[in-house]
């Protein structure tokens, strides 16, 4: 404990105010849960007015979004054990336990000391491109800290994801089983499927999100652009299912309705418009699902058989065709299709004009000029120029 002399205290008073000091955000979170565990249990029981309400095993399992049973003996242990089984207080699924008993048990069980066994750090990345697969971070807590001017692609599902103090980053993470936290970041572009996402104290950033719950915005956010998930590769749905995130149309739309934890809910964010939405361009090892399988979300729900066929007989013949996102609402994918059709129509018109070599060069210069102007106005030119510089350095 440390002593803080409040200006509200009299200069002659010997009374001091004390505040608890934490070594990590983990300790701060556990302290908050311990202090408020009785209220939290009443919330999950839907019996707010009863201080000693009865909690079912199903009610307790809701807390797995914030509490993780220490059941893993190895990194790849995927035994399905929930909190009620781990606590051993419930003899059968129908049994109910007093909130008082559960609060005492949880308070005594929660440790303030964070174990490092299930944590993977990526920190200090600068002007780099990094790809990681399930061998390094599957089912782990992934923490991306103090990275800047880089591209990071995680082809794996992780347990929790924390992105903090990052600047000018492009980050793709296949799936997060529990909570994705984005805090104190600037000018980041993040694509993630997660059970839950929270965004705080972040500015000038775009978050492409698919998940089970509405996003939560807290703290001092400015110019946050919330958008649909825009990823496309064969193993994406498999990773989402491994992370126990349901594949349903409702989850595609969660990005549109955030909970804003401040008084003025209109400030700090906007929803990405159709015209600004594009599919993310992933590295070549992320094999694209052809557009004909993804024309609507209804096609996505019946992809299991086709995906197995694509894995066995993959051919990258999608280079000259439209790439559609897997987990975006239908209106966004339809807009991409319409945009591609207009491009094809324009291309055919140019071919049919019979331009000579000089006319073709003039037209090409004009198109490139307008394209560069669009890239500068929208800010799209910076990540591309940075990537070209990194390639030239290599």
Q: Would you mind describing this structure in some detail?
A:
Keywords: Transferase. This is Tubulin-specific chaperone c, putative. Pfam families: TBCC. Belongs to the TBCC family. With 394 residues, the chain is α/β, with parallel strands linked by helices. The chain folds into two domains: 25-109, no CATH class; 118-352, Pectate Lyase C-like (3 Solenoid). The chain has twelve helices and 16 strands. The protein has helices at residues 25-45, 57-61, 83-87, 99-109, 134-137, 236-242, 249-252, 297-300, 304-312, 330-352, 357-378, 381-393, and strands spanning 2-4, 17-19, 54-56, 96-98, 119-123, 129-133, 141-145, 148-158, 160-164, 167-183, 189-200, 203-211, 216-218, 222-228, 259-260, 269-271. 28% of the residues are buried.
Number of strands: 16
CATH class of the largest domain: Mainly Beta
Query: Largest sheet, described in full?
Result: 12 strands, parallel
Helix count from the secondary structure assignment: 12
User: What would you report as the Rg, rounded to the nearest angstrom?
Assistant: 25 Å
* Overall CATH architecture of the largest domain: 3 Solenoid
Low-confidence stretches: 1-18, 71-79
Strand fraction? 15-25%
Pfam families: TBCC (PF07986)
InterPro entries: C-CAP_CF_C-like, CAP/MinC_C, CAP_C_sf, TBCC1, Tubulin-bd_cofactor_C_dom
Protein name: Tubulin-specific chaperone c, putative
Keywords: Transferase
């Amino acid at each position: 404990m440390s002593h803080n002399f409040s200006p509200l205290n009299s200069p002659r008073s010997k009374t001091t105010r004390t505040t608890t000091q934490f070594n990590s955000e983990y300790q701060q979170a556990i302290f908050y849960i311990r202090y408020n565990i009785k209220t939290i249990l009443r919330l999950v029981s839907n019996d707010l007015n009863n201080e000693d309400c009865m909690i079912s095993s199903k009610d307790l399992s809701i807390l797995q979004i914030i509490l993780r049973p220490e059941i893993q003996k190895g990194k790849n242990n995927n035994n399905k054990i929930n909190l009620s089984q781990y606590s051993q207080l419930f003899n059968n699924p129908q049994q109910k336990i007093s909130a008082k008993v559960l609060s005492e048990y949880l308070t005594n069980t929660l440790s303030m000391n964070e174990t490092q066994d299930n944590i993977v750090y990526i920190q200090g990345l600068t002007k780099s491109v990094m790809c990681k697969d399930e061998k390094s971070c599957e089912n782990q807590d992934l923490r991306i800290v103090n990275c800047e001017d880089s591209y990071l692609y995680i082809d794996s599902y992780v347990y929790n994801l924390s992105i903090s103090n990052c600047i000018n980053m492009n980050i793709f993470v296949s799936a997060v089983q529990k909570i994705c936290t984005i805090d104190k970041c600037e000018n980041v572009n993040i694509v993630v499927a997660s059970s839950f996402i929270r965004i705080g104290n972040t500015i000038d950033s775009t978050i492409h999100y698919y998940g089970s719950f509405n996003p939560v915005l807290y703290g001092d956010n400015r110019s946050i652009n919330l958008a649909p998930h825009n990823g496309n590769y064969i193993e994406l749905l498999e990773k989402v299912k491994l992370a126990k995130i349901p594949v349903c149309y409702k989850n595609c739309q969660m990005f549109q309705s955030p909970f804003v934890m401040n008084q003025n809910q209109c400030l700090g964010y906007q929803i990405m418009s159709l015209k600004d939405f594009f599919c993310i361009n992933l590295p070549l090892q992320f094999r694209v699902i052809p557009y004909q399988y993804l024309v609507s979300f209804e096609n996505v729900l019946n992809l299991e058989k086709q995906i197995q066929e694509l894995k066995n007989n993959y051919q990258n013949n999608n280079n000259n065709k439209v790439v559609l996102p897997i987990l975006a609402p239908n209106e966004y994918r339809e807009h991409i299709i319409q945009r591609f059709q207009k491009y094809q129509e324009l291309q055919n018109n140019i071919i049919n004009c019979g331009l000579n070599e000089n006319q073709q060069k003039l037209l090409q210069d004009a198109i490139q000029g307008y394209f560069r102007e669009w890239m500068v106005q929208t800010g799209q030119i910076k990540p591309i120029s940075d990537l070209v510089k990194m390639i030239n350095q290599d």
